[in-house]
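Hi everyone,

Forwarding the result from last night's run.
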Amino acid sequence: MHTSEAIVIASSVIVLGGLLSKIFDRRHAALCALASMALGLVAAYWSDVTGLRHFAAAVGETWGSFASFLLGPPLIVALLGQLRSNNRWRGP
């Protein structure tokens, strides 16, 4: 069960990172990806709870998934940005 959950989360994080790297400007792509993932996760968790205390409890129960989706895509965006900057074509 944990292996299948890890495969699903890892593939989702990689796909989200790839999509977010295409959407945002290269200079601040990782920061924008972090902000958008934070807003998206707050919106996703906030719909089921009524206050800040319930929000904290919901995040605490699913911290592994929350942290993976909060930090994973921005790290993928930063990695892709580094790979792009290192693969510049140098002319004659």
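Residues 50 and 83 are 42 Å apart (CA to CA).

Cheers,
N.
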